[in-house]
Amino acid sequence: TQPFTVAIDGPAAAGKGTISKAVAAHFGFAHLDTGLLYRAVGARMLTGEDPIRAAQNLVAEDLDNPDLRSADVAQAASKVAVIPEVRSALLDFQRAFARRAGGAVLDGRDIGTVICPQAEAKLFVTASAEVRAQRRFAELQERGADTDFDTVLADVNARDARDSSRADAPLAQAEDAVLIDTSDMTIDAAVAQAISAVEARR
Ligand code: C5P
Questions:
Q1: Does the keyword Metal-binding apply (predicted)?
Q2: CB neighbourhood size of 18 (10 A)
Q3: Is 137 in the pocket of ligand 1 (CB under 6 A)?
């Protein structure tokens, strides 16, 4: 079957992951959470490795590291993500994944703008900072992390500021992306809206 790329971008904890998995399952497409690539590089930087070398030598096992979801690794990810050589080292892998036979969903910050500007369908998923921090806080609590709401909100804001202001591939809505604001939406409603937006491009 023909390649078909769905690009899903947006700020931290907006619901991109949940929506991407549901869209991929619905259409039978493969899914790549591109944030995991930056998190894996960030995790290797935290062990003292040079981030550019880490990005150039990333292997599949790096993505299985259970620590990738921690707040420390998230901040490290957004720090390595400002380095152009880190971004360029991860480019070919993402583009090849996007054009695989049978369709692909990629979620991140720059998929619709830089990685796959020709994507057949583009979504920009967002929500207010408070709502996103609340969701991330609930998720961290569920995993037993010792944190409080204000810390999570500050982390989310710091990461958004860094992601939006960097020179290379900043977080931005592509001109032709469909905007989905999930602030006042259930997960099911957001997923349904995403699926119909992709269906409209088929
Ligand atoms: O999506 P996630 O929160 O896992 O991403 C972690 C960090 O990786 C983001 O804050 C961002 O700095 C970076 N990232 C990026 N480009 C992407 C995906 C993630 O710069 N396509």
A1: no
A2: 17
A3: no
Any ligand 1 atom below 6 A from CB of 87: no
Residue 68 CB: number of other CB atoms within 10 A? 20
Half-sphere exposure of 115 (CA within 13 A, CB side): 33
Residue 48 assigned to a binding site: no
Q: Which has the closest alpha carbon to 106: 20, 3, 185?
A: 20
User: Residue ranges of the chain with pLDDT lower than 50?
Assistant: none
CA gap 108, 89 in Å, rounded? 16
* pLDDT tens, position by position, 45-84: 999 999 999 999 999 999 999 999 988 999 999 999 999 9
The model's pTM is: 0.96
Sheet holding 5-9, edge to edge: 30-33, 104-108, 5-9, 121-126, 178-181
E strand or H helix at 114: none
Q: How many CB atoms lie within 10 A of CB 155?
A: 22
The reply to whether ligand 1 has any atom less than 6 angstroms from the CB of 39 is: yes
Q: Which residue has the tokens 């619901």?
A: 15
Nearest CA to 43 among 22, 82, 4, 69? 69
